[in-house]
Amino acid sequence: MAEDLHKRICLVEDDPHVARLIGATLRDFGFAHDWRRTGADLLRLLRSGEVPDLCIVDLGLPDMDGMELVRALRSDGRCGVLILTGRGDTIDRVMGLELGADDYMVKPFEPRELIARVRSILRRCTAPRDATPLPLSTVAEFAGWRFAPGSNTLSSADGESSTLSTAEAQLLKTMLQHPNRILTREQLMGERNLSSFDRSIDVRISRLRRKLEDDPQNPKLIKTVYGAGYLFACAVVWR
């Protein structure tokens, strides 16, 4: 796809052989990428102001645990994150998604699946073409909260602010643009054929509930409509 050429992908992988394989796969499908061997290398890149559209992160890095890097990327909140690792344990997968990763893949990988997941994350991080772009100064107000999609900033009534991950911010923005309306998991994820085994949307909903709800176990804002999807049960004012 021509638009893929304009996406900036950074691969964080300490094994040169694996990095070459991943890099070749990305190039074959029209994606340019930068390679960083350590987490520190990526953090230096971010501090320079050169923020990729997507970071593909290995968990077994020589200078830090990849989970620490995912946590740092989540706090920065400006790019998508795909974990690509040899760790296949469920606890690692859940922890990675809880920390803010957009997706999780286990090595060895199938090239077309990797590209499909890369494209999926990039679509989520990009505003839908049929949606009216929101000015950077626009904020949404609801139930005492303020959300600024231009900076992924969520602020409470007492003035405390936090920066959402790209995935969390995109999910919240979608719900805020369609309040009091049931949205399917596919609509929330921007996917037409979402696997019934893909629970990443549920993890993100859970994270947002912990931030927004007084009692996340009995949510009043983000309601589950069993068999249908989720509903944001609140009036929203955009300013």
From TrEMBL:
<feature type="modified residue" description="4-aspartylphosphate">
    <location>
        <position position="58"/>
    </location>
</feature>
<protein>
    <submittedName>
        <fullName>DNA-binding response OmpR family regulator</fullName>
    </submittedName>
</protein>
<dbReference type="GO" id="GO:0000976">
    <property type="term" value="F:transcription cis-regulatory region binding"/>
</dbReference>
<feature type="domain" description="Response regulatory">
    <location>
        <begin position="8"/>
        <end position="122"/>
    </location>
</feature>
<dbReference type="InterPro" id="IPR001867">
    <property type="entry name" value="OmpR/PhoB-type_DNA-bd"/>
</dbReference>
<keyword id="KW-0597">Phosphoprotein</keyword>
<dbReference type="InterPro" id="IPR001789">
    <property type="entry name" value="Sig_transdc_resp-reg_receiver"/>
</dbReference>
<keyword id="KW-0238">DNA-binding</keyword>
<dbReference type="GO" id="GO:0000156">
    <property type="term" value="F:phosphorelay response regulator activity"/>
</dbReference>
<dbReference type="GO" id="GO:0005829">
    <property type="term" value="C:cytosol"/>
</dbReference>
<keyword id="KW-0804">Transcription</keyword>
<feature type="domain" description="OmpR/PhoB-type">
    <location>
        <begin position="137"/>
        <end position="234"/>
    </location>
</feature>
<dbReference type="GO" id="GO:0006355">
    <property type="term" value="P:regulation of DNA-templated transcription"/>
</dbReference>
<feature type="DNA-binding region" description="OmpR/PhoB-type">
    <location>
        <begin position="137"/>
        <end position="234"/>
    </location>
</feature>
<dbReference type="Pfam" id="PF00072">
    <property type="entry name" value="Response_reg"/>
</dbReference>
<keyword id="KW-0902">Two-component regulatory system</keyword>
<dbReference type="InterPro" id="IPR011006">
    <property type="entry name" value="CheY-like_superfamily"/>
</dbReference>
<dbReference type="InterPro" id="IPR036388">
    <property type="entry name" value="WH-like_DNA-bd_sf"/>
</dbReference>
<dbReference type="InterPro" id="IPR039420">
    <property type="entry name" value="WalR-like"/>
</dbReference>
<dbReference type="InterPro" id="IPR016032">
    <property type="entry name" value="Sig_transdc_resp-reg_C-effctor"/>
</dbReference>
<keyword id="KW-0805">Transcription regulation</keyword>
<dbReference type="GO" id="GO:0032993">
    <property type="term" value="C:protein-DNA complex"/>
</dbReference>
<dbReference type="Pfam" id="PF00486">
    <property type="entry name" value="Trans_reg_C"/>
</dbReference>
